Amino acid sequence: MDIGAWCGHCGESFRLAEMVDGGFDGRCPRCGFEFAFGYLPVASAAVHDVLTAAAALESAAQRLHDVAPRLHIDARKLNTDLTAALGES
Ligand SMILES: [Zn+2]
Q1: 9 C-alpha to ligand 1 centroid (Å)
Q2: Sorting pLDDT into bands at 50, 70 and 90, what band is 89?
C-alpha cells in the first residue's frame, strides 16, 4: 500500500514512505518544512507505525481473502472510519 501524504505548508503531495527513505528528519520532502518541531522522535515513531499498520492491514486482508473469499470487509465503511481515525474528516 502506497500511502499518500501532503504538506499543509506548501500543499505538495508525496508518498509517506519518502519521509523514511534515507532516514526520517521530520521535514517535508518538497519544501523542507519541519512538521513536528521538538517532537521528532514521536513523529518518527508515528510515521513508521502508520506505514507498518498499512502493510499489516493489506497483508491481513489478503490472507483473509485467500482463506475466506466469501467474507467481505465493508471497504466503504472502513474508508469512512479510517478518514475519521486520521483526523481528516
Ligand atoms: Zn512542504
Answers
A1: 5
A2: confident
**Whole-number Cα distances in Å, 39 to 5, 26, 82:** 19, 9, 24
pLDDT tens-digit profile of 14-24? 999 999 998 99
CA atoms of 58 and 43, how far apart (whole Å): 23
Tell me, in angstroms, the distance from the centre of ligand 1 to residue 37's CA.
14
- Please give the grid coordinates belonging to residue 47: 510515521
Cβ contact 3:15 at 8 Å:
yes
CA distances from 85 to 56, 79, 81, 88 (A): 17, 10, 6, 8
* pTM > 0.85: yes
How many angstroms is it from 8 CA to the middle of ligand 1? 7
